[in-house]
Each structure stands twice: as structure tokens, then as C-alpha cells.
Amino acid sequence: MPLLARLALLIALLVPSSLLASDAEKPVERDYTFVRAAAAPVGQTAEEARQKSIGCVSCHSDTDAYSMHKSEAVVLGCTDCHGGNASIFKPANSKEGDRAYTAALSKSHVLPRFPKAWNWPSSANPKQSYTLLNKESREFVRFNNPSDYRVVRESCGACHMNVIEATDRSIMSTGAMLWGGASYNNGIAPFKNYIFGEAYTDKSEPAKILSPGAPPGTVTKDQEARGALAALYPLPTWQVIPPADIFRVFERGGRTIGTQFPEVGLPNSTGQLQRLEEPGRPDIRQSNRGPGTGLRVAIPVLNIHKTRLNDPFTWFMGTNDQPGDYRHSGCSSCHVPYANSREAPQSLTYAQYGRDGQTITVDPTISSKMEGQKRGGQDDGHGDAHGHGKKKASHDEEHGDTHGKGHAPDPRKESGHPLQHAFTRSIPTAQCMNCHMHQPNIFLNSFLGYTMWDYESDAPLMWPEKQKYPTAAEAFKVLKRNPEAAAVRGKWSDVEFVRRVFDDINPKAKDTQFADYHGHGWNFRAIFKRDREGNLLDAEGKIVSNDDPEKFRKKGEGLFPPIGTNPGKSVHLMDIHAEKGMQCVDCHFSQDSHGNGLIYGEVANAIEIGCKDCHGTSKAYPTLLTSGPAAPPGGNNLSLIRNPDGQRRFEWKEEENGSRYLIQRSVLDPKLEWRMSLVKDSVDPENPRFNLKAARSKLMGKSGADTGKFVFGAGIPEEELAHKETEMACFTCHLSWTTSCGGCHLPIEANWKTTSHHYDGEETRNFATYNPQVARDDMFQLGRHQTTKGNMIAPIRSTSALILSSTNVNRERIYVQQPPISAVGFSSQAFAPHFPHTVRTTETKKCSDCHVSAENDNNAIMAQLLLQGTNFVNFVGMYAWTGLEGGIEAVRVTENDEPQAVFGSYLHKYAYPDFYKGHVERNKRELINWTRGKAFDKRLSGETGMKEIIRNEVKGTSDAVRCLQMRGEYLYVAEGRGGFRAYDIASVANKGVSERILTGPFSPLGHDTQVKSTNATCMALATNQPINPAKNTPEMRSMNQEQPFHPIYNYAFVTDSVEGLILVDVDTLADGEPRNNFLKRSLTWNENNVLKGARHITLGGHYAYIAADAGLV
Predict the structure, then answer these.
(1) Neighbour count for residue 995 (Cβ, 10 Å)
(2) How many CA atoms are closer than 13 Å to the CA of 115, on its beta-carbon side?
(3) pLDDT, position 24
């Protein structure tokens, strides 16, 4: 090979693939000498400010607030904030699009390095921009948004430096709770006091964040006790982190796997028989080197980097592509509202401005712009933020049209603009819901009475009548906007359908109502008051018929009822504060939004407000001093807060009889104020606002549990109260419902190439969609709150329930629906205390929700309340495992694609009508082996034909299978005379593997998971969740305030009709080391032959219940 050719090949190998992408926009070199601005001054004369705006206003002849501040006391010129050249004027008689106009614009404005990505010269926010801000010049970032964190010190630091420094460390900027929780619960990092968070330097480099201690990076003992952290570190890239998962593909091996590495020195030999894959037995190990190489890496970290979980944080812009996702970055994330929802509880005074990110500015250069309008020869719309430089696809091509070819949105004003060029403290809840509307961001759309749609409610209206067979390109375009894979098949693959769900679907809906905002592109269903049988109830608790045409809207109420109206006869269970018109900022004031300057890893620790601060207690009126973990010593005084109109936020007033009452005024609407509900008044029989139920619950004595005579009242001593305010959170009883996520499925696709949403935005292979599996609203569970909250009793919920799958480059499913293991060895399906923000006055919890009822008819409710498990949420998975007379069978029962509907189910009927028809009509609902789909579609491609072999897997056993249980990638079986065995089922769904259920991957000399016994009749594990007790060390427990495992979790319990009870230590199968997979007996017990004829076993707590000849033992 010629030397030049060799050199070219070497360069090609060494240059990152992301730099070789032919369609990537190359940065334009710019000279910013004449448009670079100094830091904005703390003060100046009006004339000095005018000179810094004089050329700007020749085009921007009117604006909403010249300095972005409504107060005229703030004297700033345009270039003080934005930079640019104010000496350039609009050419006489020119208009936008003229060559002279464009030339003047180019000289006066700061120009981007990536003009196509920003769709220059449009000023609308680009769609799906993510890390574009990190790649741009600081000069253009400041010009585009002076409040972006990278440049805000120069733009705003003269007056707001303390707030800027606090916001840098705010959990809304760092995202520390998701990154830390995901790392700990999925076994990646051993720290429950989290260490990862997102931040950047002014040069957009990943930054370590230090607390403002002395020295920096330290906290005091008191601050640490309140949850403050010393530092946060950038999240390492996924390619170098060893896997925490114990999936078989991450074990050592990889002898014949295609190399992931450039060959240096002596290349590996090829063509040798021992390096060729055996047919039907592909090498699925993910690296032929050590952990943290090849694809032997931490996949959940890949998900954090590349999958849209709660991205983007406030370091980046919103995605600006659908209602609920419009916002900018930095301080503007909150303080510059965008139109995101038309519902009054979400937007109040802003509701009138729509949900499409359209402006009401008076600036003539923006106010008249229409969606799709071309400017100066640039592309339509507001740009492709990835800068590929291609002409924008049509609406149908980009979003997947469900209404027929050629459908296009009605002409409307351009999206991607703030309402006004003005900062405000009057921030609507809809702005907060850009982020806080789903599981990784504490799921606070429950405040508005919504949760994630379950794909089934009103399914006929949301799924197309004909099954969709999308191409990979069509799917990719949808998933760039909406990370849930089910969207590819649904009508909401079309953003126009998403926009009009509230208008077009709600009037026809029979099961639910949908929200007007659609963050992430999702649909959110309303939660209604129901009885335990599922009947809709009205405000008085009477059943509302499902056929009642006024169940969701009474005649004349319209689509958007005013504040204070709970529409329809049914009761929409939004928080009572939202129903009355309160927005998030009416409870969470400046410090809760900006932070107090310390670093926190958990939201609960970062909050200063508490219920009693505004509502008081049964013994005292509110002090209006904040009392949460983040409050300063003595608290912040709420009575000193003034609203934007100058009125006091809180004010005590007097009745005619001299009694005092407290009012609060709305931050958004000066005409709206509320009389506060005071707990002390509600329990006082002499007070007109006395509430007997409230008094009974708050002042109940606990002695009745012993005597049977329950007494309540003001005379009960504090220590005798059953529900002490220091031991039970107010919202334990005052919630009406709570969210509970039973699982999120993130299937990795190796053949998808996408960019990271953080740091460098590098384009690499592997991408996972984000698919909520179970989002329930009818579960109620109690536990202990965290240490900073005094470990009081509080509602808890399933909050981290990751399930992982992976399809490799050969389209082989190398692991399917596998949960990881937490850092301390527990299940990754984590529960956490949670304030649901679903406070109601009538629809609260009653006694029998937490205590055994007088009728003794709520035992299952009690079991669920105390997390004892009722199978209320159960996960079948792709296969149902059954025992045969001479074998085991994995019966395929669900779809692999999202949504993973059970064959023949209601969801299957609407999401996959063709497959449903084949299962019901062709197969008569039998779960048989069959081939469906077509090898070639109309274009002679197999891309959309979806040909798939539905196959049940059978493996012979030594005897009849009596009991079996799956845990992780092993199936534990009691097989009579064959004893007890653990089968390797890791490749059960892998099309490249011939024998998909194995007794072992190699001979018994290297792997033996059989324990012989006379007649194994049954077996049981303490949990079917993957766990690893060996990780539960004293050091881990001490550092993370964790509990030890009970020894029962180390063993499989096997009954033998002759030998009795056999304990088998199965921990070795959870350590990720394949060379020690040998099982043996740890104990055999059959005292006095009491277990003769043992035939079945069930574990309950640390007891084993065994059916034997002697009965139940």
C-alpha cells in the first residue's frame, strides 16, 4: 500500500466518527471585534444607554421593555445586554429581505458560528437544540440570550451576582437528583449522597460545582445535616464506565466478537477455526477486553446522556417544538414566559395567549412573523438545531401525517418566541411544566390533576384505524421530538394532532380528558374522583353514569372554564390550590426557585416552604416564617414579600368581631386573592370555620387503640396525639391521589446513531427510547421520610423502576426486559417519599385508607399501604414461563415493540390491529408458533414489512417441573428427580441463538447450577427482583443510611417430598463472574420428618409456609 494511502487510512481511524459526518454543519469563523460588549454597568445615564441602542431602535422601533425590566429605574442599552453594534442604522427605505437591510443586519447583529442550526436570521428558538449552546461562541450566546448561564455574569452580574451564583448550584440547573438517583439505584455509583450534576464553564466546558464554603467545596455539619452537598462532578461519558449490570453479555469473554478497537502493534490473526463463531451460538459478550471497554459499559449512563429523560435542564433551551416545550435557557427558563397552555389552572392570565410559543410583542420585526416564513433565503420554520444544513422536511415528512398526505397546519404566527421582551416574577405553572411533568422530574403535573396517558383510555380516538408500519427514517423523526416509541405508531406521531388533542379529542372522549400541554410530545390524562370499584363520583360522592353527556363538561362550560370551576359533574382531582388559581410561584418563592447558594441532590432538601408556614398548626397560627430544610436559621419572613404591583403577598386582616384572618394575593393576577385556611380555626369548635372531621383527625388520641374508646379534642396532650404534626406529614392525609410508576423500559438500539443531549453533543451509535410501562393513580403507600425531614410518616411511591433491553447491530435481542441492581445490592425498583401535590379539602384520605376498617374488608388495601405486595402491579414480560411434564416452556405473550401489548388484549386491538386480527382470527387466541408480516413491502424492502417469527421456546428437563421462578437471566426450577436447577435464559429472545435455554453455557466442569435431590417438588425465592446481598456491606450501609438484608434473600428454598427443606445459596449468580457459577446445598432440614410429602412452598416475610402430608407447616 502506498505511504500516502496508509497515512489517509490512519487518519480516518483516529479521527472521531462524529467529525466525519458529511452532513454536519461546519462552524463559520467570525470576527466579533465590533460587536463584542463589555460587562453591563451597575449604573449609567439615560443618554449613555440611548447611545447603546440608537441604531437598534431604527429597526426595533418599539418593544415591551427596553431593558427587559418593567421598572424605569433600570437604565440599560441594548448592547449592554446583547452586545452588537448600535452604530449601524436601518438603511433608508429598506425592508426585510432587501440586500441593504440584510447587510446592515449582519453588521449590527452578532452572527452565529452555526447559522443553519439557528436558521439565521430568524430569531425564533431552534427546535431540539440541546448542546448547540455549548458549541456556539460566547458572543452569540449573549446576543441570543444575555441571561444564559454561560454569559449571565457579564450581562446581569452587576446587580444579581448572588442570585446567579445560587442558580448555578440550583438542582434545576444541575439535575443532580435524576443523575444521582439513577446512578445509585442502578448500581453505577455507590453514593446515595449524590455526586453528579450538570454545569459548564463560561467556555462551555464541563464543570465541577463547589459549595460556597470556607474553603469552597466544604459544608458545615449543620448544612450537611440539612442535605447540603460539598461538590458535584460532571457525569463521565458512558463509553468508559464499567457496567454495573450483571447481564450475561457484560461478563468476560468476547473471544470472537467483532473488534471495537483499532489494532495496534501485532494485529489479531484471522481465519483460525477457533476464532470463528459457531452457527447458532454467536458470541454476544460485549468486549474482548476489560470492563469499561467496547460496549461493556454502563448502559443507564448512556441513557442519561442520549435519551430524553428530563432533558434539557436550564443550561439549555427547551426543545421548542410542541405545546409545553417552549422556553429559553438560563434565567429566561423561568423569568421569560412562553405560551405553553390555554388552561387557566396552568396559565391563569397567560392562558389567553395560546399554547404554541407565539409572541404578543409590540416589536415590529417579530410580531408579524408567520410560521414557515422565509427570511433572506434561509430555510423554513425555525431550523434544525443539529446543523445538518439540509432543507427542512415538509410537515408530513417530519412528523408522520395521520390525517392523510398533504395535510398541513393552518397558517399561524411563528412559534419559538417569548410572549414579551420582558422579565417577570409572574411565572405561570405552564412554564414550570416544561420540566416537572414526568417521573425523572418529580412528576408534578399531578398538581394539575394529570398523569401520563396509559395508551388505553379512549384508545379508539388516539390510535389509527389502520396499523402503521413506519420506516426507520419516519420513526427517527418522531423520536427526535418524542422519546416514547409508542408515538411512532399512534396518531400523536403528528405534531398537529398533538396540538389539537384538547380541541378535537376531549369533546369526543368517553374515558378521560387530556391536558393542553404536551411536554416531550406526550399526552397526559386527567384523574377523576372514583370509588374503589372505579365508578365516577360527583362532588357529593354520588355515582356519575358513564353515559352522562355532562360528566366532563356541563352544558355551556366550554373547553376552558374559568378559575374556580371544576368542570363537569365529575371531579377533576387537581390540587385545590390549582383549582383556586394558585400557580407554582404562589407557594415556591424566590429562594425555592433560585436556590440558597448551597448544592442539593434531592428536591425535598432544596425546599424552604412548609405547609405550616402558611396554614399554621392545630395549636398555633402561621408565623409566615419558612421552616423547610433549605430555610435559613429562623426562616425567611413571607410577610415582607411584595408582588409585582407593590401589594403585600400576605396580609393579616380583621373580621368585624375582631378575629384575624390571613389573605394571600396572586403573583400573576392582581385581582385575585385567597383567604387562607388556618388549621387552628378548623379544630376550634367556637370558630365559624370549625370542621368536625378535621378536628377528629388532627386531635385524635392514640389510647383508643388499647381501650377501644377513641377520644379526640383540644384536651389531648401533645404526646398522646395519634397523628403528631412532628411525626406525620400534613399531605399524608390531605392528598387525594398519587402517581406511581411501575416501570420504565429503555430498549437500546445499536443501529441508531444519535447525538448526546449533554456536554459535547457527540454523535455515536446506540440510542434508547423512553417508555413508561405502568403509571397508576390508584395506589397509596406509606413509609418514612428522609432524615432531613425527621423520618416522619409520608406517602411514598415507586419512583425508579428501570427495565433494560438491547438489540445489537445484527438485530439480535441480546438481553430483554432486565432490571439492574442498586449500588447497595437491593432491587433497582426503588421507592421514595413524595409530596404528590394533590391536596384536596373533600377528596382526602379517610380512616379506612390507613387503618383496618370496622367491617374488616380492607386487608388488601392495608397490605398495599405497608408495601407488603398484592400483585396490584405485576410485570409479565415478553414470555410467560410454564412447567411441563418433561420440560419448561417460554410462551411468547407480548409484542417486542412499544407499546408492549399483550397478545389479544384491548391495547393490542388498537395499537396493532393487524397483529390482533391475526392472533384472534387466524390463531383463535392460541399462543402458538407462527410467522407474521411480510418479507417485502410495496417498495420491495423489508423495512416496513415487519416479518417476525413468533416462537415459543421449550427445554427438556429430567422430570416433571413442579415449580419455577424467573429472576434476572436465570430460571429457577424444581424438577422432581432432577432436583433443583437454575437455567440460563439470557438468550431466550435472541434470533441468532439456536438453543435459547441452557443448563449452562459450557460443560459442568466450568458451570454447574444443579443441586441434586431425591424428589424436588417446589421452590421459592424471597423476591423475583435481581438482587446482590454481597454488595450490602457495613460500609455501604453506614455511608448511605441503608438497612441490611435479611439472610433469607441469599437462598433459594427447595422442598423435597423425601428430604424436606433444602436451602441453596444462589448469590454466586449475581456477581457477574461466570467462573464461579456452582450451586450446592447450604442446609437440609426435616426435623422429625415433619416435612414428609412436602409439595409446595410460599415465603411470607421471613417465614416459609410448606404444604406437606402433615398439613400446612
Answers:
(1) 12
(2) 14
(3) 82
**What sign does the dihedral 875-177-590-784 (CA atoms) show?**
positive
| C-alpha distance from residue 165 to each of 158, 170, 182, 395, 509 (Å) | 12, 9, 26, 42, 48
* Of residues 910, 898, 951, the one with CA closest to residue 927: 951
Exposure string for 655-692, b = 16+ CB within 10 A, e = fewer: eeeeeebbebbbbbbeebeeebbbbbbbbbeeeeeebe
> Cα-Cα-Cα-Cα dihedral of 503, 508, 509, 513, to 10°?
30
| Cβ atoms < 10 Å from Cβ of 496 | 19
Task: Enumerate residues 6+ apart whose C-beta is below 8 A from 578.
Answer: 345, 429, 447, 448, 449
Residue 706 or 491, more confident? 491
Instruction: Measure the CA–CA gap between 234 and 237, rounded to whole angstroms.
Output: 9
Q: How far is CA 440 from CA 91, 293, 791, in A?
A: 51, 28, 23
pLDDT digits (tens, 9 = 90+) for 291-338: 988 889 999 999 999 999 888 999 999 999 999 999 999 999 999 999
pLDDT at 5 over 80: no
Give the residues across from 572 on adjacent strands: 528
Record the pTM: 0.92
User: pLDDT tens across 961-1017, in order?
Assistant: 999 999 999 999 999 999 999 999 999 999 999 999 999 888 888 899 999 999 999
Q: Which region holds residue 661: left if phi is over 0, alpha if psi is between -120 and 50, else beta?
A: beta
- DSSP string covering 960-978, please? ---EEEEETTEEEEE-BTT
Grid cell at residue 177: 437528583
Q: Per-residue pLDDT for 943 more than 90?
A: no
Place 18 in a pLDDT band, splitting at 50, 70 and 90. very low
Mean pLDDT of all residues in 506-528:
97
- Condensed to tens digits (0 to 9), the pLDDT of residues 172-213 reads 999 999 999 999 999 999 999 999 999 999 999 999 999 999
At 283, is the secondary structure helix, strand, or coil?
A: coil
pLDDT confidence of residue 373: 74
Query: d(Cα 746, Cα 766) in Å, to the nearest integer?
Result: 12
543, 417 contact by CB (below 8 A): no
Number of Cβ within 10 Å of residue 405's Cβ equals: 6
Spatial distance between the Cα atoms of 401 and 496, rounded to a whole number of angstroms: 8
| Cα–Cα distance for residue pair 512/530, rounded to 1 Å | 12
For residue 33, what is its C-alpha cell? 471585534
DSSP 231-268: EEBPPPPGGGSPP----GGGSS--SSSPP-S---SSPP
Q: How far apart are CA 372 and CA 390, in angstroms?
A: 15
Under 8 Å between Cβ of 666 and 424: no
What are 567's three cell numbers? 368542570
Q: Which residues pair with 794 in a beta bridge?
A: 783
Tell me whether the omega of the peptide bond preceding residue 215 falls within 30 degrees of 0, making it cis.
yes
Model confidence pLDDT, tens digit, residues 368-394: 898 877 665 443 334 444 443 343 343
Residue 579 class from Cβ within 10 Å (0-12 exposed, 13-18 middle, 19+ buried)? Answer: buried
pLDDT at 376: 55
Query: 602, 630 in Cβ contact below 8 A?
Result: no
Q: Are 1013 and 1055 in contact (CB under 8 A)?
A: no
Angle CA 782–784–788, to nearest 5:
140
d(CA 360, CA 218): 46
Three-state SS at 1085: strand
